[in-house]
Structures are given as structure tokens and as C-alpha cells.
Design brief:
With 206 residues, the chain is α/β, with parallel strands linked by helices. The protein has 7 helices and 6 strands; from the N terminus they run βαααβαβαβααββ. The mean pLDDT is 94.
């Protein structure tokens, strides 16, 4: 199996109103102020990405808009494929709730960095454990489809944590300890010898 190199980028900052709620797989817009202020970050990230590369986004517009902005800031024009397997964690009936309105935790303590433990599932949604399985299957498939190539994927914090957890073979609670900032870059490689994690949460320009 030829090595496939993945360049995983978390989408840009979403609008302030969206940040006030649990948005999960809601199709929320990006923050226009941040887009205007972060031109240098987009230029640096566009310059850092491999050429040529296959590009993928998720079905949510915030990933496509982030990718299109990177192309506008210096990356050569390229078609954007869509990969639904790398969409964000669905929070089901909790999506749209202000953070303060989450149901109280009656039986177990909250995770230090997320409202849910790794194996907890919100009503109608999915657990982080399920995200790791879903994303892991997508990454294995993509490694075969794009074998020997560089693949740039603009995705989401939860999905990128899931990809890293799959590569490292760690549990969902541990995955929630991984910081994935907006516009950060994480690099994974898949070869016949398995997965290798080269970097996590690189800031633009690093």
C-alpha cells in the first residue's frame, strides 16, 4: 500500500451567534469579521499546503467556505470533493441549545473539555465513540482511494479528533483532550505499516 498523506484543517471560526449554542451539524455561517482579519493566516496556510493535492470538504458550508478562502489566498484552483464521513459530531436534540441550557448531569461528571463523556449520546445524536468509528472507517477508505497522494481535508474539530484517535488507537474520552483550533493543521499518514501522526493542531504559519 502506497503512503497517503492527510492534511486535516479545522474550518474557520463560525459566527458569534452560532458560538453561543451547541451547533454540531447545523449549517452555521462563518464569522465575517474573523475572515477579514485573518488574511495573513490564510496566506500562510495556503502556502504551506502540498501541491498537487486532492481536496475534500464536508457537506456543511463552513468547510467549503474555508476551503474556498484558502484557494482565494494563493492556492491553485482545484475541485472540492465532498466527504460526508468526516462531518462533525451530531448532537441531536441538543443542537441549537445555549450552552447554559444543557440538561443537568445526573449520573456522571462532565468531561473536563466537553459537555459529554466519550461514550455518551445526546438524544437523537451520536457519541464521540461513534464518531471515532465513523471517521476511522472514512479515513481507511480514503487512504485506499487516494493511495500515494496528498489529501487536504477541511473538516471539523470533532471529526479531526476522531481521525487522530483512530490513528493512535486511543479511546473517545482521551480524544476529547486533543485541542483542535480553528484553521489549525493536523497531519496523518497511512502506509502498509499503519498510521503515523506527524503533527496536531499546528497554527497557521508554523
Amino acid at each position: 500500500m502506497m503512503e497517503t498523506s492527510f492534511w486535516l484543517i479545522r474550518h474557520a471560526l463560525v459566527a458569534e451567534a452560532a458560538r453561543a449554542v451547541l451547533y454540531g451539524v447545523m449549517d452555521v455561517p462563518l464569522c465575517e469579521i474573523a475572515l477579514a482579519e485573518q488574511a495573513s493566516a490564510y496566506r500562510a496556510l495556503a502556502a504551506r499546503l502540498p501541491r498537487p493535492a486532492d481536496w475534500l470538504v464536508t457537506p456543511l458550508s463552513r468547510t467549503r467556505r474555508t476551503a474556498e478562502t484558502l484557494l482565494a489566498y494563493g492556492y491553485p484552483s482545484v475541485a472540492l470533493g465532498v466527504e460526508a464521513g468526516l462531518i462533525e459530531q451530531s448532537l441531536g436534540e441538543w443542537q441549537g441549545l445555549p450552552h447554559a441550557d444543557l440538561p443537568p448531569k445526573l449520573l456522571r461528571p462532565a468531561h473536563a473539555f466537553w459537555p459529554l463523556a466519550g461514550d455518551e449520546k445526546p438524544p437523537g445524536g451520536e457519541s464521540m465513540a461513534e464518531v471515532v468509528v465513523r471517521v476511522g472507517a472514512a479515513m481507511e477508505r480514503l487512504a485506499e482511494v487516494h493511495a500515494g497522494r496528498d489529501v487536504v481535508i477541511v473538516s471539523h474539530g470533532g471529526a479531526i479528533r476522531g481521525a487522530i484517535a483512530h490513528a493512535l488507537g486511543i479511546g473517545p474520552d482521551n480524544a476529547l483532550h486533543i485541542s483542535v483550533q480553528n484553521l489549525s493543521l493536523s497531519r496523518l499518514h497511512r502506509s502498509a505499516d499503519g498510521w503515523r501522526v506527524q503533527s496536531v493542531n499546528e497554527a497557521p504559519g508554523c
